[in-house]
Every structure is written in structure tokens, then in C-alpha cells.
Amino acid sequence: xxxxxxxxxxxxxxxxxxxxxxxxxxxxxxxxxxxxxxxxxxxxxxxxxxxxxxxxxxxxxxxxxxxxxxxxxxxxxxxxxxxxxxxxxxxxxxxxxxxxxxxxxxxxxxxxxxxxxxxxxxxxxxxxxxxxxxxxxxxxxxxxxxxxxxxxxxxxxxxxxxxxxxxxxxxxxxxxxxxxxxxxxxxxxxxxxxxxxxxxxxxxxxxxxxxxxxxxxxxxxxxxxxxxxxxxxxxxxxxxxxxxxxxxxxxxxxxxxxxxxxxxxxxxxxxxxxxxxxxxxxxxxxxxxxxxxxxxxxxxxxxxxxxxxxxxxxxxxxxxxxxxxxxxxxxxxxxxxxxxxxxxxxxxxxxxxxxxxxxxxxxxxxxxxxxxxxxxxxxxxxxxxxxxxxxxxxxxxxxxxxxxxxxxxxxxxxxxxxxxxxxxxxxxxxxxxxxxxxxxxxxxxxxxxxxxxxxxxxx
Length: 459
Description:
Blueprint: H1 9-18, H2 40-46, H3 56-63, H4 67-73, H5 75-84, E1 91-94, E2 103-107, E3 113-117, E4 124-127, H6 128-145, H7 150-173, H8 176-181, H9 189-192, H10 199-210, E5 212-215, H11 217-224, E6 225-226, E7 232-233, E8 240-241, H12 253-262, H13 269-275, E9 279-286, E10 297-303, E11 310-317, H14 322-326, H15 335-346, E12 355-361, E13 364-372, E14 377-380, H16 387-406, H17 411-418, H18 423-452
Antiparallel strand pairs: 1-4, 2-3, 2-14, 5-14, 6-7, 8-9, 9-10, 10-11, 11-13, 12-13
């Protein structure tokens, strides 16, 4: 057998602590200046070449709804801001877009309701604190939209960053298997976090769970399927719309079905058997979210035993991650496999149908990942939260993010780097408040671009 060199938790902590000589914790609080010729709108427009022109107006509409919506749609801008600044010398599998709306509840393959990260389009190898900064910044921006004063925003930011610090230090002491199997279910939430939250906060967390909204396959079938014995997806633009021939990038419904037919090779054998018992019966374009509007994304309705035995798959084209772009790394050969790998590493209970496939369209390879579209998924409704609920929700997200990073096997090094003092949360709070101000200016630039005619919302 191969000899494995082992190190103690204390040794790995010391290794992480040594990283402070390369990048101090205080340096993480500094938001780096941009080049004088940096054009926010121009950078966003640069992504248009990889998106459907007909959907770009909708993307601008959604980004212009609020500063938080703008943040959600500008992952590239923040990644480039982060790349210009100081980063901790600890690389893990990161989400790459860990804002507060990319966490939620869904049904695991074992049919438990779990809380976890839900979006991995930008997942890649990167500095662990990039995710923490994006999460905390999004919460501070959400807090301002709810009327929180700057002092309350600072308290919120420190509380969430502290939760990450405490959680990652806890995971550093656990065995590899304990970390890997640690799951945050809705039924065990209080037990999992006992000792981390006060009674008041635990009651707040219960309130947060009541504010989650979502859709499962049964309700989706009632809303989005018609035809009785011959089920079809209901046209509901822009949410669902059927293709007429090939679209602007050359993709047709047959191409989408080609992905479904071939991607099962990336599934475990038992899931291949399960998928083989269903037949695709309809395909429609699917438009959701903010940042991904304009990318190729489809819903496929599959039928099993009869018209009462159906479910949806989502087929989404994967592109180069903003982490890779910002760090000026070479693109991976297959972006969809990157997304699937990242999700399987970071998420405790990945979708049973998660996989990827590549097809040839007009002589060019196109890479898509596949997952179940509706499966008791629920996300937070920020507008219905108050300051205490927002903090409770943020702490749940921070705990979840720490667990996701710990699955890369470097939790002790991260814990050593962060340490036991308040310096880490102070730095993250400083960054988040600075980014709130920068994001507000960027949001105004997008509004100005609309007036100047650089972008078009179609209204």
C-alpha cells in the first residue's frame, strides 16, 4: 500500500497560520482600487457574446431592479475586484457566486429536506475568503435595502463572518468522514447547531424557514404542464417558451434531447437504470435568475409509467467561470464537468440526476450540465425579513459555506489562518461595507448606461 504522510490538526493549523506572513488577515479588509480605465458596463457587455441577444434586455431589466439584483448579475465584476486585492494563500473548491440567494432548501435523494448551496455555475478552485466576502457583501447590501443603518450592517457582517470562523474551526477538529457526512436538514437544524445559537436566534431561524418559498415537481406539473395523456410544457414567456427550429446560437430541441440521451454515462449505474425508465416528451427554453439570464438553458419534461409519473430536467450550458477569468487562468476543457465536480465536492446531497454532456452544434462542441429542475426547492424571500431574521439566515449560510469548504480537506489550515481572535470578521466587515458603496456606484453606472443607450431593456 502507498505510504501516506499524516499530520496532526495542530500541525495543519500551524501551516495555515504561517500563511499570514504572505497575506495578513487585515489585508483581506482592503478593497483594491480599479484601473482608471476600468469600464463596469463594458465588462458586463463583454459577456454578451456568450449569451442570447434576444434575452439581454431581460438581463438588464433584472439587474436594474435593485443594488442586490445588480450584485447577483455582476459576479464577473466582483471576481475581478477580488483578484486585484490580497488573497489568503489557501485554495479550496469555492462556489464562486456565494451570494445570499444561492443558498436554499431542496430534497436530497434520500428525500430529506436539506439546506445547502444551490448554484455552482462559477465553482472553481480559488481562495476560500472570496466566497465569504461575496456572501457577507450580499447580506450587507440586502440589509441596506431593508433600512438597516451602517452600524447595524457592520454588526450583521461581523456576526456572519464570525459564524464562518467558529464553524470552520469546529470542522477542523472533526474527522474527514464526519465533515463529509455533516448535513443541515430542516428537521435537525436546531440539533446540528445546538450551542452555536441562542434560544432567541433559534426561534428566528425557525421563522426564516417559514419565509422560504419554493416549487416541487407536483406543483410544477400543475402550473407548467398541460395536455392530460399527452403532457406538454405550458408556454409562459420568459419562464418557459418552446423553440421554433434552431435558436440564435444554433441550438435546437433535438440538440437538447441529444444531451439527455448521452449524458447518462456520467451517472452512477443505478441512476442510469432509473433514467432509462423515462421518456422525454417535451423541451422548452427556461429563463430564471439574474446572472445567468441569456445563457442557453432548457427544461425537458420526462414521462415514466404514465402521465402522472413525470419530472423535469434542467439542461444548462456551462461557460468559463468568473473565477478563472478574473485570475487569468486557462479555461478547463469541459466547463460542465467543472460545474458537476464542484457541486459534488461542496454539496452534501447532490441531485440524483446531476451529470454533464457535450454535443456538437454546427461543428463546435457545446458543454451542458443536467440536474433535476423542481424537487421541493425553496429560496429565501429577502423582502420578508427583518434585521434579526437576516442575521439568522446569514449565519446559517456561513455555517453551510464553512462546511462546504471543509470538504476540500483544508479546514484546519483555514482555521489556523483565521485564528481565534476577531481580526478575520473585522476585515470581512470592512471589505463588505466598502463593497456596498462600490456596488451602489456600479449600479448607478448601469442606470446611466440605460439613459445613454449603451444597454437596452426593451421597455
